[in-house]
UniProtKB/TrEMBL annotation:
InterPro entries, per database record: Transp_IS110-like_N (IPR002525), Transpos_IS110 (IPR047650), Transposase_20 (IPR003346)
Domain Transposase IS116/IS110/IS902 C-terminal: 201-285
Coiled-coil regions listed in the entry: 131-162
The protein's name: IS110 family transposase
Keywords from the UniProt entry: Coiled coil
Keyword check for Transferase: no
Organism of derivation: Candidatus Thiothrix anitrata
Pfam families found in the cross-reference section: DEDD_Tnp_IS110 (PF01548), Transposase_20 (PF02371)
Length: 327
């Protein structure tokens, strides 16, 4: 197996091919981050008698910029792994690497692939990618709407002219219509795909999981492969991080908050409802309060329990059962 580390930027890919594992020697190539660049990279590998089917490619998750390269190399037959940047940073630190350049980063990624054998990444379906894009667009429109409402409040407080206030009102009317339209498109997209529709119904069978939380979770769980509920909770930043060492360090455990913050905010509101109306979540919340945990700590555990239930209904493809192992 050959290992190729790729440092991804918006415009280019810095690639390091590990050609001698014992002597830690590499070959380097820089290509555009575009279909033309992907083709050049494959030609470069072929010229060195490297079969893409015997290639393990490692790159970091970099927003949206790594996605097209990952899909192209996966479709060409390569094993692609998307590494957590924090894990790679710790790995580089352990190797004693302090220099940070695109070339050095790509070498670290190739070495990371060799020594840790990260799991294979599988691209999400086209339907899942469309849903992700629609949800991102809805979030952007919601932010635009809130900004205009803030401007409206300031305009009214500052006694702005009627022309300015009317312009803001017109803008709010337009954005509100756009928000309604994108929501309709999201609902239609899910309804037209049997898998997405079925999974949304399973998620919404859980008390406290409504349309907003179900669609967001649907996009996350269809875009990534989670082998356990714990992995999903960790991705969403809902696992407690403890800071204890000897007698000098005894910090309070806090949520890692390493995942998408907007989804955690939605799950927070869902957990508020769940501790009243969901038997499983209510039991966890009450048990922790009885042990002396703070309300925020117990609420974090309630969010985590809610995520575990969501993973469970999709894993088993069965609707939520209130009387199943109630705890």
């Amino acid at each position: 197996m050959h290992y190729l580390g790729i440092d991804v930027a918006k415009a280019k890919l810095d690639c390091s091919l590990l050609v001698n594992q014992e002597q830690d020697k590499y070959k380097f190539k820089v290509v555009e981050n575009s279909p033309v660049g992907f083709a050049k990279l494959l030609d470069w590998l072929t010229a060195r008698d490297i079969s893409v089917t015997e290639l393990h490619i490692v790159m970091e998750a970099t927003g949206i910029y790594h996605e097209q390269a990952a899909i192209a190399l996966h479709d060409a037959g390569g094993i692609v792994s998307i590494a957590n940047p924090a894990h790679v940073k710790g790995f580089a630190y352990g190797l004693g690497v302090r220099t940070k350049t695109d070339g050095v980063d790509s070498r670290v990624l190739a070495r990371y692939g060799l020594l840790t054998k990260p799991s294979r990444w599988l691209p999400p379906s086209a339907e899942s990618r469309i849903l992700k894009g629609l949800l991102a667009r809805r979030e952007a429109i919601k932010q635009d709407l809130q900004r205009e409402k803030n401007r409206q409040e300031k305009a009214e407080a500052g006694k702005e002219s009627a022309l300015i206030r009317q312009s803001i009102t017109d803008s709010i009317t337009f954005i509100t219509a756009q928000l309604k339209k994108i929501q309709s498109q999201i609902d239609d997209h899910i309804d037209q795909d049997p898998t997405l529709k079925n999974d949304r119904e399973l998620l919404e069978s859980i008390p406290a999981i409504g349309s907003q939380s179900s669609t967001q979770l649907l996009a996350i769980m269809h875009a990534h492969t989670f082998n356990s509920a714990e992995q999903l909770a960790a991705y969403l930043g809902l696992v407690p991080i403890e800071r204890q060492s000897g007698s000098s360090l005894n910090g309070r455990a806090k949520l890692s908050k390493s995942g998408p913050s907007h989804l955690r905010a939605i799950l927070y509101m869902a957990a508020i409802v769940a501790i009243q109306h969901n038997a499983h979540v209510k039991a966890v919340y009450g048990r922790l309060l009885a042990k002396g945990k703070t309300k925020m700590s117990a609420l974090g555990a309630a969010m985590r329990k809610l995520v575990h239930l969501c993973f469970g209904v999709l894993k088993t493809q069965q609707k939520y059962q209130p009387d199943y192992q109630n705890a």
